[in-house]
Amino acid sequence: QAHFQRISSPPHPHPENERMAYCQLRLLIASAWACVAVAHEFYQEYIPNGKNVQRNGTAWEGVGHLSASGEGARNDFGKAFQAAGFTWSQELCEADTDGDGQSNGLELGDPECIWKKGDTPARTTDISHPGFADSMTSERQQLDVGAPGEGESRTDAAANSNAHALGLPSLKSLCLFMGTLCTLKLI
């Protein structure tokens, strides 16, 4: 006589346990997304106009990332921000991380690089993205040489602009202070 043992199928999980596991999984996923959103909001506070950055008319919450939502890989600004220890430094402000000819400070409304966390930036409108070259502010770069002022040659305008960028008095005011008449000629 052959002896056969009946193999039973595993017990079916109780419907309440399945529903509880499903709810826990949904809660875990929602928590992970909330952490990502909070992290980006946290870093937005460490750059001027962090919550106002736009790229071609689209709000860009994850300023340091290739994705607007802040997911995935970092863009060049995000890499530079990380290298600066996630702080708004003079070097990061003056840099042009996206290579569009505008400094990060100009694009983020801090062209003088004087903003500190908690301050209102010099400009809060026309904010562009410092991580993408196709996003530029309409403001002019502080170091650009403008048209000469009254009684000033183009060369004088360039010298005055460079002096201003270095925190020095303009050529004209320096000469007036010294009581001499100055002219600058370049060969």
Mean pLDDT across every amino acid position: 73
Q: What are the secondary-structure elements, in order, as H or E?
A: HEEHHHHH
Strand content: under 5%
In spatial order, strands of the major sheet run: 1-2
The total beta strand count reads: 2
How would you describe this protein?
There is one protein chain. With 187 residues, this protein is mainly α. 36% of the residues lie in helices and 2% in strands. It has helices at 15-44, 76-83, 90-94, 104-107, 154-165, 171-178; strands at residues 54-55, 58-59. It has a two-stranded antiparallel sheet with strand order 1-2. A hairpin with a 2-residue loop joins strand 1 (54-55) and strand 2 (58-59). The radius of gyration is 29 Å and the shape is elongated. Mean pLDDT is 73; it is low at 31-39 and 142-187.
How would you summarize what this structure contains?
The chain is mainly alpha-helical and 187 residues long.
Question: Helix and strand layout, with pairings?
Answer:
Layout: H1 15-44, E1 54-55, E2 58-59, H2 76-83, H3 90-94, H4 104-107, H5 154-165, H6 171-178
Antiparallel strand pairs: 1-2
Using brief descriptors, characterize the structure shown.
187 residues; two-stranded antiparallel ribbon; 2% strand; 36% helix; elongated; mainly alpha
